[in-house]
Amino acid sequence: MDGSQKQLHIVMFPWLAYGHIMPFLQVSKFLAQKGHKIYYISTPKNISRLPKLPPDLCSNISFIQLPLPHVHGLPPGAESTSDLPIHQVPYLKKAYDKLETQLTEFLKKSSQVKWIIHDFAPYWLPPVATQRGINLVYFSIYSASTFAFLGPPSELLNGSRQRPEDFTVAPVWLDYPNNLAFKLHEMVGHQECMDSVSDFERVGTLLLSCKILALRSCYEVEADALRVLSKIHQKPIIPLGLLPPSLPSNEDKENENWEAMKKWLDSKRDKTVFYVALGSEVSLSQEFMHELASGIEKSGLPFIWAVRNRPLVEGQLVQDVLPSGFEERVSGRGLVLRGWAPQLRVLTHSSVGGFLTHCGWSSVIEALGYGLPLILFPGASSDLGLVARLMHSKKVGLEIERNDLDGSFTSDLVAESIKRVMVDPEGEPLRANASAVKEIFSSVELSNKYLDEFTRSIEEFPPSDAEV
């Protein structure tokens, strides 16, 4: 921040999911480095999960903890989507909406706040901000393609797409060749996490009121989608870059399993291991988990699989979601990890040559940042299906074929897809393309250039009538 530039007071208000919380923290750190004062607002448990700040940023970032209000149906202690099965996420949205009172109180006491950078959920925020002369930035952690698929606010609030089937074709406003559409089972699955206020209503309402739409994207990857967004929204569309994560220097110490994992990976040849991770929120049925495991086993290739046991109906935890005897049969060739895995550490290891992913945008960015081709197995929620279609069309990954209606698939197709991406000659173009985009997806310099432009845009934004 140069001498003539006034310090801005900015609130960051992400949705309660790890995949949202971390990109919001990255942007917070950048703005704090530029000399602006950041109030990062979330619930106590989510804030406690954040990595420690570098000492030089502590004076410019304040973490504001708002206790999550109680809502009937939300299990005690659940403060993020990773604490819940998908059908309980609507209760988390209800609790999040009840943060309005506490946030309003905070803003009353913090009269210098001029910007709130928010997520998709707080549809009640516009009148709160307008009353206090605060400008809103909608920061979407999704790809620009996903956001372009959603369409203009009029479409989101009362458009032609009313049934799940309506989302299974590419919309007319995407005026470039594309394959962006959901499978029917993905739309039906996502409806489970919708509250009485739908996600479309939340997004549409916020788009009408924000001054700027910022996205985790860049022109080098999504030029067409960003152009369409400018056309349909008629307001500043500012990509923030891909926000590639950096490896924390202390991660080795934090995860005592890493030494054993590293030793196992060191014993494998370069680019021979594929990593499997379905994210913190995707929960497959027992039948699907067994079919996936069977496909992984049939591939005959070395793998690491981060398996997360998920809470199911009535709070019962399924202790083991893998087929009986699976680990014994793949012993030596496969390594099964229970719970959390140091994903970045695994992806950077030279023996890892591919990633079987649930298609979360963060995971895709991480993998392509290391030049790894993708075995695309999207979960049936959020934008995962659209990310899979996008990466498949860019020929940096191969989507495992599934039944459009119920999401079923065969272990043979899983094994076939893994082998094509990892070793088969016909997968060579995928491996070459993934390697070629590594420089874009890993470039901190490129991301910082976009973040610089975003910072300037809010610093130089014309004052509202209330401020003049």
From TrEMBL:
Species name: Theobroma cacao (Cacao)
Pfam families listed in its UniProt record: Glyco_transf_N, UDPGT
The protein's name in its UniProt record: UDP-glycosyltransferase 91C1
Signal peptide (residue range): none
Entry keyword annotation includes Transferase: yes
Protein family (similarity comment): Belongs to the UDP-glycosyltransferase family.
Domain of life: Eukaryota
Residues of the Glycosyltransferase N-terminal domain: 7-113
Keywords: Transferase
An annotated Gene Ontology molecular function: UDP-glucosyltransferase activity
